[in-house]
Queue: 2 jobs
Job 1
Amino acid sequence: MGFEDGGRPVDDGNRVDPVMNVGGDISGDAGFSAIILAAGKGRRMKSDLAKVLHPLCGRPMLSYPVAAARSAGAKKIVIVIGHQAEQIRVRFQGQGLIFVEQREQLGTGHAVLQAAGAFRDHVGTLVILCGDVPLIRPETIQSLHDHHRMKRATVTVLTTIPENPTGYGRVVKTGDGRAVRIVEEKDASPEEKKIREINTGIYCVESRFLFSAVAGLGNRNAQGEYYLTDIVDIARQRGMEAVSFVAADPVEVMGINSPEELEKAACRITAPDRR
C-alpha cells in the first residue's frame, strides 16, 4: 500500500501491511469511520458496467450507501474498488472519499485487508458496508453502532430474518444469543441450513482487531476465498465479544445482484411510504 500525492491511498498490489496492535478494546471516541466494499463485477447484472455504477433512480448505486454512511456520521469513508476502478474514481471524484484497490477478487476478507493502510493509525470503530446494498438507512447504521457500543462488542454483525434464507450465510449462535460464527450456504450442514437468521454482509468492528484478523484468514472453504465472515469465529476464539443486531426489514439490507433486484430497489426508493 502506498500513498499518492495528497495522501490518497493506492494499492501497490494485493498485499498491505496489517495493523499489528490487535487489542479489542472499545475506543472512547463515540464516532466511527466506514469501509464500503465495491470491487465486484456483478456478472448477473448482464452488463459490462461495474455493478455499483448501475443507475438507480438517476444515481449510481454506490452513491446510496455513501450517502447513508455520511448521514449516519461516518468521519472517513474508504471505498474498496476493483472492477472498472478508474471509472468509479472519476464518477466519485471531489466527494472526499478515499479509494483503495483490490486487484484480485479473492473474497470479502481480502477486500477489507486492502483498506488497512488507509487506517494505519486509526483506533476506534469501523462500519463495513456493501456498495450493492443501496437501501440501507442512516438510522439502521446508527442503531447498529449504538448496539455495538452498548454491548461493548468487538464484532457486531447486522443480520436479518427473511422468509426464505436460501443462498445466504447463516448466523450460528450460542444459547444466550451470542454470535459464534457465520457459515456460508455452500459450507453449511443440513442442520445449519435450517437457521433463518442470515448475515447481511454489514458489520461494526473495532479496527485494531479487524485488520489483525483479516491478515490471518485462510481460504479452506468451498469457494476458496478469504471470508470476512470468519472474523466472528476469530473474535470468539480470542475471548472477545461477538454479537448480532437484527434489521427488521429484510428488503432494506437486500443486495442487488440482478436487473430484477435493481428494479425492486427502485420501486422501494420511489414508494411514497418509504421509511
Note: The helical segments are 63-72, 85-91, 108-113, 138-150, 207-215, 230-237, 259-270.
Job 2
Amino acid sequence: MENTEKVVYLDNAATTACAPEVLAVMVEALSGACGNPSSHYSVGYEAKEFVDTGRDQMIETEKRVREAVRYLGFGRNEADERTLELIQQSFKDLEQEAGPKSICQIFDLNHTEDGRLVIGQMEIRSKSLSRNLKGCRQVVLFGATLGAGVDRLMRRISLTDMARAVILQSCAAAMLEEYCDECQKKIAAELEEEHLYLRPRFSPGYGDFDICYQEPVVRMLNCAKTIGLTLTDSFMMTPTKSVTAVIGISTQKDRCPISGCEVCTKKDCEYRR
C-alpha cells in the first residue's frame, strides 16, 4: 500500500535538502570549475567566472522578486512564504512563454518657443517630458513587448486560479521592466562610445505626458511589423505586457536613474519604490 503521509523536516538549521536545479549547478561547478577562484591560472579564472556569474544571477533574481512584491502592493512589508513560492513559480512559467522583442530608433528633437517638443512628425505638449529632455537635441524612441505567449498564459491561469493570476500579472510587469532595463543598458553602452548619454526612460502616461502619444510612437517605430505590438482605440497595447518610451540623449553625463519612479511626480503612489 502506498504511503501518502507528508513528511515535514524541521531540522533545517543542521541540514537542508537541495532543490534539483541547485544540485545540477553544484555538480557542474564541482566537475568543471573546481579551481581556486582567487588564483591566477586558467582553471582558477574559470572558477572565478562561475562564482561571479552565480552572484550576478542571485542579485538579479532577488531584484525581480522585490519588483514583483512591490507590484503586488506589499509596500515595505515582507511577502509571506507562500506568495514568494508562487512568485518563483510564476517567473519560471513566464520564462517558458515569453518572447521578448524590442525596437528603437534615434530621432532629432526640437524645443519650440511655445513649449512644444517636436520629434519627427510628432508634436508633444508635456511639462513633465520637457523637464526630462531639457538640454537634449536627440531622443531614442523605444518599444518593447514580452509577446503574445505571456497574454495567453495569463488568460489561461485566470480561468482557474485568480490568486495566481494576480501574482503572474505582477511578475510579468517585473519581467518587462527588467527586459527594458537590459535594452536601455545596451543602447547606453553604444552611445557612450560617441560620448552621448541617456536620460531616464519616459513613457506615455507618466505625469502629463498623455497616453494618446502611444499611437505616434508605435507608428513611427512600425511596431506592428517589427515586434508585433499594436494599439486598441483607447491606446492600450496588445500584447498587454508591452512598453513604449522616449529616452533623451544628452552630451552631458548626468546621473541617469533607469527606474521610472524617480521621475514620476505622484509621490503618494502605493507602488512607489
Note: The helical segments are 20-31, 42-71, 81-97, 127-132, 148-158, 162-192, 214-220, 223-226.
